[in-house]
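A.,

Following up on our hallway conversation. Structure tokens first:
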């Protein structure tokens, strides 16, 4: 995948353009779909299969296969769980959230701050949920659903 320009740089170019079309002619927009990005992440992890993502994310296999197949988009918690299943970095997790059309993890939010910290530490979904539970926040994997 080609190297992408920083969002701040793109915003400067957009604001400097005399029209949206001028900006579009610079080929700066990116129409990346979540399913394409997930498949790219999966390919990045040699030997990892969708079934491994299902197990590590604790999501229903139909849900995971539908997301990978571009049949549906995940909600916010499911997108985060999917990121844990793919062993994503914080940047990769934020991109999954952005492509899913949900809010990014925000360090000013207590629950989000815990999740960010867990991702940065390389925690699994189970370890993150233990930390959320320990700090009296709702877990990602809810057995009551």
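Then the amino acids I'd put at each of the 145 positions:
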């Amino acid at each position: 995948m080609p190297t992408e320009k920083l969002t701040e740089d793109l915003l400067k170019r957009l604001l400097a353009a005399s029209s949206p079309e001028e900006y579009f002619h610079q080929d700066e927009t990116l129409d990346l779909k979540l399913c394409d990005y997930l498949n790219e992440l999966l390919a990045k992890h040699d030997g990892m299969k969708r079934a491994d993502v299902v197990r590590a994310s604790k999501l229903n296999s139909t849900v995971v296969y539908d997301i990978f197949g571009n049949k549906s988009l995940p909600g916010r918690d499911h997108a985060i769980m999917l990121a844990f299943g793919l062993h994503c970095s914080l940047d990769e997790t934020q991109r999954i959230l952005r492509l899913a059309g949900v809010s990014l993890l925000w360090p000013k939010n207590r629950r989000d701050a815990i999740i960010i910290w867990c991702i940065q530490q390389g925690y699994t979904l189970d370890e993150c949920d233990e930390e959320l539970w320990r700090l009296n926040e709702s877990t990602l994997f809810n057995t009551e659903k």
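The chain is about 60% helix and 0% strand. Curious whether your intuition agrees with the design.

B.
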